[in-house]
User: What shape does this take?
Amino acid sequence: MIEIYKGYELIGLSPVYSRFVWTRRFARAGEFRLETHFCSELFRELAIGNVIYKRDTDEAAIIEHRSVIQTANDELLLVVAGRHLSSILDRRVFSFEGEIGVGELLRHIINTNFLAGAGANRSMAGDGFRFIMGNLPNTIISVEYRNQNVYNAISTLCAEHGLGFKVRFRPTERTLEFMFVQTNETDAIFSKEFANVIEQNYIDDIERYRNVVYIDDQFVHNDTLFRGFERREIAIAAPRGSGEMTYFLQSARDALHENRKIQVLSSTINPHSEQFVYQKDWDIGAMVTSRSADLGFMERELVSEIVEIYGEEGLSLVVNLGSDMM
Assistant: This one.
């Protein structure tokens, strides 16, 4: 199930573990955590920078953390963790301004920061990075970014326009295939009445929610839309020398996204249910029907996060529907 790579070279297969958590996300990078008994061979294989490849989900992650813990029983526990390969977007910053279609902007960001347009020192093309073109929305937006982190910008744009992104690891071809993905309509239903939901937790949260943005004393966004008790303000600072309306609007939209309402229905799914099978009838990025008779809740929701937990009792699935928790 798990393969370990150094670059594109296979160096280990299916390490024995006591607990393995593989978290998949639609519009953000997933992550993993693996716990196992320490041995020198595994310690060498599970080195910082090596890749964990999980073939059944066609996904891979980079080892970014490694620790050895001595337990009270005098045993050594090896823990490794990291993020999925889509986190490599976090390694670049960029600037851009203009009126442009969403899809064109996303392609531009990738091409000019990871491929030929990035220049010799910044391009990842020589490391096997490839961009798989797809159909993307052409909604026209006005944006201005100044030394913005690519990962933050892309994850926000994707969340706002119903898109996700991922990187497929192709060791045989020695490539990393980056692509944007759209939501997938399905007939799947998550409900205790269908015997595919073991537990459900509902979160509806507005503690951080803001709807009006002040940018220093230069600009107010949504000033006339919210009044009185419904108005929730936040103030952010504008970089020195800024003054363009487009940049203010972009900064305000980003601030509102970071401080949005959160509504999540988290369900522990029976991975062995024959009703709506995981990775066959639904997967990450699927639109499903979520139903709870106790809450009187039934909505079409996005599968924004899937947590696969492997332990002594086998596989369990925790699925988050709705707003992506930050």
About this structure: The mean pLDDT is 91. Residues 212-258 form one domain. The chain has four domains: 2-84, 92-182, 184-205+262-322, 212-258. Residues 245-258 form the longest helix (14 residues).
